[in-house]
C-alpha cells in the first residue's frame, strides 16, 4: 500500500502526495512510528529542528539505508530552517546540523519554517521581555535569507527549497527577488481553514502546497495548555458532512479529509504515532470522492486557524506575523 502518487514540483522533482508529519512525538514514539511508516510504504517524512526529533528519525533512516531496505533516492525528506535561525548567515550551518542529525548528505526539501524570527539565549532557550513576551527579531529579511537558501540547491545540500507559513503577499514579494522560485509552501490547510486565495495563488505560480494539520492537529491542545493558551479546538473528524461521506465510502472521516486534500491537488502530511492510524492514513487511494462531495467539503470553510502561534506569546509583534486572531494579543 505504498504511496505511489506524486506531485511534480516546478523543478521537476517528485513529491509523494502523502507524508508522515512528526510534530509532537517523543524520540521513542517517533522511532517506532517511522519504522512502522516505512514498513507501511511511507517514503515522505516531514520534520524540523523545532520538533526535536531529527536525531531519532536519523537513527531509523540509517538502519533502513544500511540494511538496503530502502534507497536514498526513494525517500523524500523535508526539514526546515527554524524561526530562531531565520537569518542569512545561519542558513548553511543550520541545514548542516539537520543533515548531521538526520545522517543524510542532502534533504529533498528545505523550507523556511516561518516568516518571523525569534531571539534565543546562548543556552538555546527563548528570550523574553519583562512582560514575559517572546522577543522577536524584527530585522527579518526574506530576500536575503532566500539568497542563502538558493546556495543550498547549488551546493547540493537541498534538492528543492521552499517556504512554510508564508502569506500570499510574502510569497509574491519573494518571487520578485529570487533566482530559484520556491517549489513549495507548507501551510495549515484543512476543511475548516482552506486559505483558498493563498492556495490558488501558489498553484497559479506553480508552487506546490503542502497541508499541515490536515486532520485538525488535536495534539496541539496539550501544547497550547503548556503555554497557558486556553481554547477549544474543533474536531474535524466529527463534522456531520465528513462522517456522512465517510460512511458512504466505508472509509473513516480521517481518510475522507485526506482524500479531499489530495483530490484538490495538495500534498498532506498527517501526523500519527499509532500503527493502525498510520496505515489508515496511507490507505486513501482505493476510493474517489464525487465532484459533489468535493464541493460539499469545500463549502465547510470557516477560517478557523488551529496553529495560530499563540503559544509563542508576543510573536504577533513581529512585522511579518500574519496569523492574528482572538487568541493572539
Ligand atoms: P495519533 O498520533 O495518536 O494517531 P494532524 O496531522 O492534523 O496534526 O493530526 C494529528 C492528530 O490526529 C494526532 O493527535 C493523531 O493522533 C491524530 N490522528 C492521526 N491519524 C488519525 C486517524 N486516522 N484517525 C484519528 N485520529 C488520527
From TrEMBL:
GO molecular function: oxidoreductase activity
Pfam families associated with the record: Aldo_ket_red
UniProt keyword NADP present: yes
Keyword NADP listed: yes
Residues the record marks as active site: 51 (proton donor)
Keywords recorded for this protein, A-Z: NADP, Oxidoreductase
Signal peptide boundaries: none
Binding, substrate: 113
Site feature (Lowers pKa of active site Tyr) residues: 80
Chain ranges of the NADP-dependent oxidoreductase domain: 18-300
Domain of life: Eukaryota
InterPro entries the record matches: AKR (IPR020471), Aldo/ket_reductase_CS (IPR018170), NAD(P)_OxRdtase_dom_sf (IPR036812), NADP_OxRdtase_dom (IPR023210)
Family: Belongs to the aldo/keto reductase family.
Protein name per UniProt: NADP-dependent oxidoreductase domain-containing protein
Natural source organism: Drosophila navojoa (Fruit fly)
